[in-house]
Amino acid sequence: MPPGPDASSIRTERLVLRAWRDEDLEPFSRVTADPVVMEHFPAVLSRQESDRLARHLGDGIRTRGWGMWVVQRQDTGAFAGYVGIQPVSFDAWFTPAVEIGWRLATEHWGIGIATEAGRASLAHAFGTLGLDRVVAFTVPDNARSLAVMGRLGMVFAGEFDHPRLPEGHRLRHHVLFTITGATGATG
């Protein structure tokens, strides 16, 4: 994966949100293999699955110019995970839509990185891209993600069963949050 164009980078006070690079694959594989990080996902990922996901996310940025950016800390240069926006990839009552999402290594939890990068992603969505609405979703007991959604100014918009998970799966039921350009994300 070659570095993405400079236009796909966003700087915040502490972070750089940027395109994916080959050297991100190894630290990302540690994130996706961590059962604590992956608690609210169907399973931890193998190295091959993790690399495939990273390449898919990188392709989205190269294709659209925006997506799920790598989050790199400015103070240490460390790979923290990813935060960004992308089109929702399944059909549901609230689609078509663009979602905001995040997945960070545990050593970067609890210090506001998801919120800071999320605000920058929403500012890009509403300012640069001119989107009207962004959604986020998770399982009802994912307290950490729900807290980030709240700090971003997102509001509860409903519930749904994730169509990619089978009936009876412990993670099938999701809650949906939304924010509009008129109500949030000024930077």
Core attributes:
8 strands; alpha+beta; three-stranded antiparallel beta sheet; five-stranded antiparallel beta sheet; 187 residues; disordered N terminus; single chain
Strands, helices and their partners?
Layout: E1 10-11, E2 15-18, H1 25-32, H2 47-64, E3 68-73, E4 79-87, E5 98-104, H3 113-128, E6 133-138, H4 143-151, E7 155-161, E8 173-180
Antiparallel strand pairs: 1-2, 2-3, 3-4, 4-5, 6-8, 7-8
Helix pairs in contact: 1-2
Please give a structural write-up.
The chain is α+β, with helices and mostly antiparallel strands. It has a single domain (6-180), classed as Aminopeptidase (3-Layer(aba) Sandwich), CATH 3.40.630.30. Helices cover 27% and strands 26% of the residues. It contains 4 helices and 8 strands, in the order E-E-H-H-E-E-E-H-E-H-E-E. The strands form 2 sheets. Strands 1-2-3-4-5 form a 5-stranded antiparallel β-sheet, with helices on both faces. It has a 3-stranded antiparallel β-sheet with strand order 6-8-7. Strand 3 (68-73) and strand 4 form a beta hairpin.
Tell me, rounded to a whole number, the average pLDDT: 93
Whole-number total of structural domains: 1
Q: Describe the sheet with the most strands.
A: 5 strands, antiparallel
Regions with pLDDT < 50 over 5+ consecutive residues? Answer: 1-7
Rounded to the nearest angstrom, the distance between the terminal CA atoms is 29 Å
Count helical runs: 4
Number of strands: 8
CATH architecture: 3-Layer(aba) Sandwich
